[in-house]
Specification:
The chain is of the alpha+beta class. It contains nine helices and 21 strands. This is Outer membrane lipoprotein carrier protein LolA.
Amino acid sequence: MAPYEPEQDTNEADELSAGRRKAARYVVPLAVAGVAAATIGLVPALATSGDPDLKDITAQELIEKIAASDTEQLSGTVKISTDLGLPSFGGSGLAGGFGPGAGGGGGEGGKGSAADPSAKLMELASGTHTLRVAADGPDKQKLSVLDDAAEYSLIHNGDDVWAYDSASNEAYHSKEAGKQEGRKGEKELGKELPATPKEFAEQALKAADKSRTSVKVDGSAQVAGRDAYRLVLKPKESGSTVGQITIAVDAKTGTPLKFTLSPAGGGSAVVDAGFTKVDFGKPSASTFDFKPPKGTKVTEESDAAKGKGGEHGEGFSGVEGGGLNVIGDGWTSIAELKTPGGQGLPTSGSGADSGDVPPEAEKFLNSLGDQVKGDFGSGTVFKTRLINALITDDGKVYVGAVTKDALVKAANAAH
């Protein structure tokens, strides 16, 4: 694990301990959920009913059809199921540190708001969820995550973006400052974390470089009662953990209706997301109206940023100039980051150095990953069915939808 460190004064020791604890708290959710969602998109297995007889179309023509799709008005229900192969921690308390969305503030005693989209939407990176979606042009969108006894909604209407969590009766509000600052509302509504088949498809097609990707039309399907073509993308290069991506494209409008990413290791899809109902008519204007219910705790975006110590809070810092350093591109791109405090995983100890965690906890962390060595030194590789992450003992993280060998190679090259 971490190398021997010389004696430090109390303040330095406290800072390093805090850094290691933050590493344990933030690194796995970032590796598993953040990059999986933002880089590759969530993935769906194609559940269809019947194979409609459609006229022949080439892969290039179908991609152009997706790009030319001018669908701006729709409403419907989307089902998302995600299976990264992570262990279930139940009520052990570890889920709070390692589960998707860990680190997000909110609720009593927490920082920020339970309705903050940056944390709340990360829950889509595991389990099965039902979403209601609606859109009416670039200035009106709504996304609601439905649970058995609660609902979480994001509403973009003009200059206002609202998020409301009925379980905690908390709301989060942000205001677009102007077009010169970009469409913040659209970003908040899931551009960093795809939530509709169209957004999944856009993420996947960005990686579909002809020299690195096999692209073909593989028959037809019927999704949400509509005829669709099946577009299949497969990485040509070795080192990726992505097996293939299948996109069901509406034959009439060119709108992606369902999106499937299967892992290279075989088995069920990592994520299954697609419409179960869809209507391309104009949604009612009242769909996008929102007023916080009486008694709702409302957090303004500016106040939340202050509570988090800035826009990015206490998460990872990038390797170069505070930004994310990406090694390579396409299917085998790898993100390089630093852990908070620049330390590796927490370690146990004895005597005056009591360490950061009990020996049992350190043993548990080690059991979740594979110990590796290279020119970079040593570290631990944590694996899921899609995303793998290498955490080095000197506090660097290499993560991507790539194999363990690819991570070690990247770490050696960056050394």
